[in-house]
Design brief:
The chain has 8 helices and 4 strands. By secondary structure, the protein is mainly α. The strands form 2 sheets. A two-stranded antiparallel ribbon has the order 1-2.
Amino acid sequence: MDSVNRWMRLDLRRIRSFRAVAEHGGFRAASEVLGISQPTLSAHIAELERELRVALLSRNTRRVCLTRMGERFLNRARRALDDLELAALEIRDEAAMQRGRVVLVCTPTLATHAISPFELLSLYVGVHGDLHPKRHLPRNQRAHLRRRRALDISA
């Protein structure tokens, strides 16, 4: 259990810093992309290497190269970071959908056809959350909403 807890302390900033150095070929370019100083970036890499107990980068005065372990870790780190970033985007998008509002206005004739816009919205609700459509708006209210461009869909 202690070894599991040890790995749980890996810091995403350090992993992102490592990925940036590897992808940009050096500390200067990576620090510019990340918007952090080179000493801070160097500290992130040193802390990550200390945590993993391996050298991830081979450094000399002219260039930075990945070690064999660095290449292995980079492949896994990329996948993990990509998965985490995708998960965060999905959650943010889903939360935005649940809080959003869709305004649909259509003529009474269209609303009574085989699949009305309200039935389509009901399908949408089944996937994306709570929605309370108003079925009947007087013609003048529909026109007012159109003029104010307060509609998402008008049919």
